[in-house]
Amino acid sequence: MQQLAKRTKTNTPTDAPQVRSNCGLPLNKVETLSVANLKTSANNLDVDLHPHTGGLIAVVYVLSVEGLPLMPCSKAKARKLLKAQKANVVTCFPFTIQLNFVCENKVQDVDMGIDSGYQNIGFSCVSTDKELASGTVRMDGKTSERLMERRIYRRGRRNKLWYRKPRFLNRKKKEDWLPPSIQRRYDTHLKIIRQLKRLLPISSVTIEVANFDIAKIENPEISGTDYQQGDMYGYQNMRSYLMARERGCCQLCHKQFSKGQPSHIHHCLERSKGGSNRPKNLAILHKKCHDRLHKMKLKLAAPKSYKPNTYMAIIQKKFWADIPDLKVSYGYITFINRIALDLEKTHFNDAFVIAGGTTQQRIKPLEIIQKHKNNRVLQLNRKGYAPSIRRQRYAIQPKDLVWLNGEKMVATGVHCNGRRVMIENKSIPVKKIDKTFHFGTFSNN
User: Fold this and answer.
1) What is the DSSP string of 291-353?
2) Which among 106, 244, 288, 363 is least buried, having the fewest CB atoms inside 10 angstroms?
């Protein structure tokens, strides 16, 4: 009798195509375990070679000779075109080919839906009978940290210079200026739309937007001039406002501040985790209480963040200006349609509903990660004498695909001035790399 593998809590499949048997499970009592109802793992290593996809399709994107997007084709058809040398591979992610012969360029109408968000972007492109693209883009959200790091470097360099008179004429902002963190998120939305339009003949774009009144959410009775009078209206500074709000008590020990006793202001949600300087995120504490809070890693209740709502309120007007023939949808419409279709709450499912999807055959969704293309070029010398400047971008970047001895791997970085690449914690000379695929801003690993 074949030796059983390690016992687990998974049932051994009996309907896998690799299992060779001409009788049912009740007739195989000789080879069952003596312990009843014991669940074991499969002994056949080939059982999991054909996972169930749930009817999801996979497509290959096609470009014409002129570079115009055509309707996607199946993997089998793309394989035949490449084998007959009637097409060339354009990019590996997503897999796209370009035809070598002239065709009629007949296409169908494709509708794109975008589930815009603060941290994730869902997208879906549907035709009359199929979904042609679907996925979620996860943004890194580290712009504020990088700006803080850049400010530290700049301040350190300027402190070493001779004093010069401040200049303010070059500090004007453009009328359509956005904070850098919001601008990068907004540019990511536009880049996703542009890249999808290069792959598919998209005829319409629908984005889910919503109008948010943050002040109304926090205070439903606000009206009139109350919008112009914030929490600190009538107070000299932040400390006096916090003292009045807490009635002169510490927010940790709840004891009164004695006369002349110093007070410390604490961020309930740390700045490094997205906390703001708004009064709702600040607490006033005794000095001893503040030290004890950090030493014992205690937490004060942080207020609800409305950053995503504020972000949507800022960028919704820019969508109208930058995307021609834009259509908009609202969250409550997406919710009703998604419930009617009995779909799970995900970003790509919301985008599918926003695009007008109903009974179309679904495609396997992509998981895309936003990647930072350029690290800081200013870096310390290995010997620590002086900073050295990297003046060029290396050919291989982190998360790029590389082929070594015919095997595809993922690069984690380069060193030795770009002469060696790190693959699976091993240093490999760049000369031994057969070929490289550079992901750019978006990556799937």
Assistant:
1) HHHHHTT--PPPPPP-HHHHHHHHHHHHHHHHSTTEEEE-HHHHHHHHHHHT--S-HHHHHHH
2) 106
The whole-angstrom separation of Cα 66 and Cα 64 is 5
Nearest alpha-carbon partner for 121 in 342, 314, 312, 287: 312
Instruction: Map tokens 């056949």 to a residue.
Output: 44
How many CB atoms within 10 Å of residue 117?
A: 20
DSSP of 397-420, one letter per residue?
-TT-EEEETTEEEEEEEEETTTTE
Tell me the C-alpha distance between 291 and 277, whole Å. 20
pLDDT tens, 368-422?
998 887 665 555 555 555 555 566 778 888 888 889 888 888 888 888 878 899 9
* Pairing, β 366-370 against β 202-208: unpaired
Of 33, 32, 42, 37, the closest CA to residue 10 belongs to 42
Sign of CA dihedral 49, 54, 55, 58: negative
Phi, psi of 25 (to 5 degrees): -65, -35
3-state SS assignment for residue 23: coil
Element (H, E) at 188: helix 180-199
Which of 327, 267, 263 is CA-nearest to residue 294?
A: 267
pTM, entire model: 0.70
Task: Give dist(CA 192, CA 319) in Å, integer.
Answer: 13
How many Å apart are CA 114 and CA 348, to the nearest integer?
8
